[in-house]
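Schema walk-through. Below, the input block comes first and the output block second. Nothing else is stored per chain. Lengths vary across the set, and this one has 204 residues.
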Amino acid sequence: MTPGPARRTRNARGEGARLRTELLAAASRLLAGGDPAAVTLRAVAREAGVAAPSVYGHFPDLDALLLAVVEQHLAELRAAFDAAVAGPGHAEERLRAGALEYCEWGLRHPGAYAVVFGGRAVRLLTEAEAVAFEDGEAMLDSLGALVARLPGVAAADVAGLRLAAWTGVHGVVSLRSGKPGYPWPPLADHVTAVLTGVLPRGGG
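--- output ---
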């Protein structure tokens, strides 16, 4: 007989925050499987080793849980991107470093990436969703600031080029995740090719 999931040790009084953290971690592990649709409140409870009703003490529904996961992972992605672009080098080098880190993060966390950018977390635009995506907007603002420093870029072109760069790196993550058997070039070369196609050439 196959044993069931291990039961979680009950938290002591005042440790409810620990359970919330464990539920988010459980949801993240399930998302790492690459199929966000497989994540349900019952599945998260089972993964965390708690009874399903325990989840409702922290998240009223699946959307609230997934929104919290979005907030967590967007903050992680932003931190990774910010660290990459903070390194030495001119604007083009830093932009490529940030774009590469963005793609590496997305490929390391395919389930979380799908939830963040695939619209799975929240069905309607709400104030809560806008707050959750503040980290995403801040990351795009950083990308735009680097684009603005590239030689030959006019202020009027920055928004369009920022969108083109983001679209390009998102395509890299989506294609490589969806077609892992394709003979892709090394990731750094792929990112460079995409950015070369949408951004002005030359060092900054």
